[in-house]
Amino acid sequence: MWLFILLPWLFTGPLLEQDEPARPLYRVVRSSVTFTSTAPLETITATNRAANGLLDLNERTFALRVPIVDFHGFNAPLQREHFNENYMAGRIWPNAQFKGRIIEAADLTGPGTYPVRAKGMLTIHGVERERIIPCRLVVDAGGIRVTTTMDVALADHDIRIPRVVEQKIASVVQVDVDLLFEPQAMTR
Amino acid sequence: MRCAAAALLLTTATAATAQYPLTAAIEVRTGPHHPAITCLAQDEHGFIWTGSDRGLHRTDGEMAETILRTEGDAVLALHHAYGAAWAALASGVLVRCDALGCDTVLADTLLRTAQVRALVVGAQGTIWLGTYGQGVWRVEPGAGPVVLTGGADGHVNGLAMLPQGRVVAATDQGLVVYEGDRAVMALGENEGAPDNLVLSVTVDEQGRVWAGTDQRGVFCWQPGGGAPMRMHPAWDAGAVLHLAVERDLVWAGTRERGVVVLDTTLTGMGLLNAAQVRHTAVRDMIMGSDGRPWWCDGTATLRHADPDVLVVPGHEDLDLRQVSALCTDERQQLWLATPQGVFRYPPTFFRKEDAFRRMLQVPTHTPVTALAADARGTVWVATFGNGVHAVEADGRSVHYGTANGLCNENVLAVRVAGDHVWCATLDGLCTYEQQTRRWRAVPVPGPGFVYDVLPLDDGRVIAATDGNGLLVVHPDGTVAPVDSLGPRTFYTLLRTQDGDVWAAGPGTGLCHLRPDGVDCTGQERTPFNDGAVVAIAEEQGRVLVFGSTGTVAHDPATRQWTDLTNTLQLHGMQASLNAVAKLPDGTIWIGCDRGLLRLRPSATRYRATVRAVITGLAIGGRPVPVAGGFTTTHDRSDLTVRFSAPHYNAPDEVRFAYQLMGHDAAPLITRDREVNYAGLPPGRYTFQVHALTGDGTVPPPDGAAMFTLEVGAPWWERPGGIVLMALLVVTVVAVVVRVRERRLRQRERLEQEKVRFQLEALRSQVDPHFLFNSFNTLTALIETAPDRAVEHVDRLSTFFRSILQVRDKDLIPLREELELLDGYFALEQARFGDVIALNVHVPPTALDRGIVPLTLQMLVENALKHNAVSAHTPLVVHIHVEGEELVVSNTRAPRMGPPRSTAFGLDSIRRRYAALDPRPVQVVQDDGAFTVRIPLIMQQWP
Fold it and tell me: What is the value of ipTM here, to two decimals?
C-alpha cells in the first residue's frame, strides 16, 4: 500500500531537488523475469520483459513492478489465459511487486560485482510476504545489472491450484530475474 | 473494544508418522473460519494465546475462545506478561487483554504506518515495540511513545527482554541492546557476529542471547561477555525467522524447512520432517512453560514438539542405528558399540571438539553384546564369539578368551561388582577376580544359556537363563533357582534406585524379585507377548520396557501400567539387548534401529500435571474476575463457572471432577467445561474442580482450583430482621387480642345486662305487688264473677308462659311484644278497670320490626307504678309508630311519695338498645305526658 507513497516520491524526488547534485537514481531499461514450474507431468516457462522499477543507491531502496499480463511463453495460449485469469487473478491484482532495501552496507557506486541481499515485501496475487533475496549486482559504466533466482511457493501467496492440474503445476516455482538499471534521465 | 468471548470448537490431530522430535498439532477454528495465526503467547496457566487476522483467541488444547474479535485488523505482535496479553494491531492500536476482554492502551496514528514486528512487556507495564524502519519504541503506561535513539538503522525484526530492564533488538544490522532511552551495545559483523541480518532473538534463563540469522544459522552471545559463538557452522537450513530455547535445545523456525532443532550438546541437528511442515515460513514461535516449543505458520494449525524425546540417527561417519551395546562409566562418559567399533564420548556428548573415539581391534564379524565399566575406569567389552576385552583407562586393552580360562567366548552380558567381573555366556556364568586374575566358571543346569547377570550388594548374583528361569548364585558358589515356577526365559535384569531387582522376558512379563520369591505381572500385555524386551529403571522407581510391539512403563508403587507406545511413537522399534544406559541426571539412552534414542525425564510423559483452572465466573448473570472468594445476595445467586485444564498431549482425555460443597453431595465427573447453578439458597459454598486424565479415578490431592461463595440471607432472615419480624408479629397479635378482648368484654356486658334485665323483668313480673294485686283481683273475681276468675287465671298463666318464652331472646317481632302487652294489660285492667286504657296504632308493616322483649310491658308497668291512677286521672298509654320509631307515651299524674322502683327499668332498656342499634332510646318528660321513643330494628325472622 505505501508503495504508492514510495513510488511518486521516487519519481518526483529529483524534480524537487534540482539544485542538489543529481541523485544516483536508476531506472529499469531492460528486464527479463522468467518463471519456471517444474512438475512431474509438465514444465511451464514464461518470460516477462515489461518489468519496471527504480533503484536509489543513496537510500539503498528499490521498487520493482511486474505486470502479470505481460508474461509470454507458456505451452499453450489457453494456459496463459488460465495463468492470467484464474491463478493470478490479473484483473484484480494486475502487478507483482517487490519493494524494499539492500541490506549490505557495501558502497555500490564504483564498478564491480557485489553479492547483496535485497530484503523487502514481495506482493503476488495480492498477498504480501517478506523475502530476503540474495542478488548479484554488477556495476559498470553502462549501468547496474541485477541477476537473481528465487523460489516462490504458491501457497505463500494464496494461489490455489485445482487438484486436476496438481501434477502439471509445481507448488514452488522458480523465478529468474535479470534487470538492467540505467541512471534516470534528468527531466526539467 | 470489548467483545464477548465465544467458545469455539477446536479439533486435535496428532502427528501421523513417527518422527523425532515428536510433534503434535492442534487446530484453532473460529466457527467456519480458519484464522491465519501469526502470533503466539502462553499465559501463566498454560493457555496458548493466538493472534490472527481475525483477532485474539485462547485455547487449552480442546476448546478455543475468542477474546477479541478484530475482523481484518490483524494482530501483528503478541506478548503475555504480568497476567495479561498485550497485542499490537495493524490499525495502530495497542491493547491489553485478559479473560474478560480488552482495553486500549494506546491508539497512535504514527503506529499505523510503522510496521510493528515485535512487542515485549517489562515490569510496570512498559511496552517496547520493534518497528521495521522506525526503530524501537517505548510506551510507558499512560504516556505517548518514545522512540529510542541510536543503534543500527531502525529496521527491527525481533525483540527480547534482558535482565535489568534492558531490551535486545534483532535488526538488519545486527543486535542492539537498549537501556533506558538509548542503545548501549551493538553487535554486528564488525563485532564478530556471523551475519548482520539478524531475524530473530530470544533470551534464555541464564541471560544469554540467542540470535537467528539469515544465512548463518544461530549464534549465542552473552552481552558484554565477549564474542558471540556460532552454533552450527554447517548450517544449511536457511533463514532463522524465529527462535525458542530451553535448556540444551535450540528450536529454530525457518522459512523453508520448518522447525529445526539444535541440541547444543550435540553437533548434529535434528530436523522435523519437511513433509509435516508446510512449505511456508514459521510465523511465530514461543517456548512453552513446560519446555515444549510452540509455533505457527500462518494457518489455523498450531504445532508443538516433545523436547524430551530425541533420536540421533548418526554422528559424523558413525551410524548410530546399529548400536549394539551401551554403558556409562564413573566419569559419566557414554560408551557405545557399533559394528564400526567401540566409542567413548565425554559427558558433553557429541560436542565435536571434545569428541574422543577409540576403535578396538575387534573382528567386525563378532558383534559387541555388552559393555560394563568398573570403578578403575576399565571398560569390559563382551563379544559374541571373541570373548571379553578389558579396555584400561590409559587406552591399553587386554583380551580374554577360553585360553585364559573364560568358559565360553560367546558372551551375552557382562557386569562388574567390586573386584568381580561377571559374564553371562552360552555356557553358563563366568566370573573374573581382578586380584587373583583368574576366571572361574559357575555351571548352570540345562543348556546353560545365560542372557543376563546381575551381582547384588549382598554378594549374591542373579542370572537370567534361557528356559531355566532365574537362578541365584550364593557367595559360597551354590546355584539355586529363585522360584519354583518352572521353565521360563528372562532377557534382562535391572536394579532400580531403591535397590529393587526386576527381571523381564518374553512371555514372563516383568518380575519383581522379593526375598520370598518372584512376583510377576504383565505377562499377557504388549510388548511381553511378542519377542524380546529390554527394560531399564526410570525415575521414581518406574520400569520402562521396550519391545518391538510397544513401550510400557510400570509403576510399582501403584502397580499401574502406562502404555507409552503412542506417546513416544515407538511402534516397531527394535532395541538391542544391553543397549540401554542411564546417566545420573535421569537421561536414558537406548540403542535402537532408528538411532540413538534419548529420553529425558519428562513431567508430561505420565500426564501427572494436568491442573484445573477456573477461567470464567458469572455471579447473578454478571461476569466477575476470577478470585478466591465472593459474596453475593440471595436475589443474585445464579452461579456460572467455566473451567479448563490446558493439556496438549491428549486434550480429549481431560475430564473434570467438580463439586459445590454445601450444594453437591459428591463430586460430579464431566467432560463439560461449564457448570451452572441457578438460585442458590443462602449459605456458604466452596466450589472446587480437579482435572483428570486417562482412567483418572483418583484426583490429585493438590490439583484443585477452588473459590468460596457466600450467598447472603434476605433481610428477613438475618438476626435483625428476625427481631423486627418477631416484634411485628407480637404487635399484631397484641392488637388482635386487645380487639377481641374488647369485643368479648362488650358481649359479656351485654350478656350480663340481659341477665340482669331478665332478672328485673322476672322479678317485676313476680313482683309481690303484682302477684298480690293479681291475687286480690282474683279473690274479688272469684266472689263476684267466678267465670271471669277462671279467665283471669288463664291470662295469668299465658302471660307467665310468654315471659318464659321470650326472655332469652335479644329481639322479638313487635307483633309478639304487642300480644304479650295485651295479656299483661288485660291482667292490670282486671284490677284497675276502665281507668287505664291502651291505645295501639301500629301499621301492619311495622309489626315485623324487632323490639327488645318486655320493653313495652316494662314501660306500661312503669307508667302504672309512677302515676296515680284514678277515675279523675285515668292513665292512657298510646303506642304508635313514627317513622322507624315506636312511640310510647302516657298521661302523667305523678304519684305522691317515693317511687317503689329502683329506676332500673328505663336504664336497662337504654343499655340493651345501645348494644343493638345506634339510635338512642329517647325519653321526653313534660307536665302532661311521658314519652319514650324506641327504635324499631329491621330484622329477618327465621
Answer: 0.81
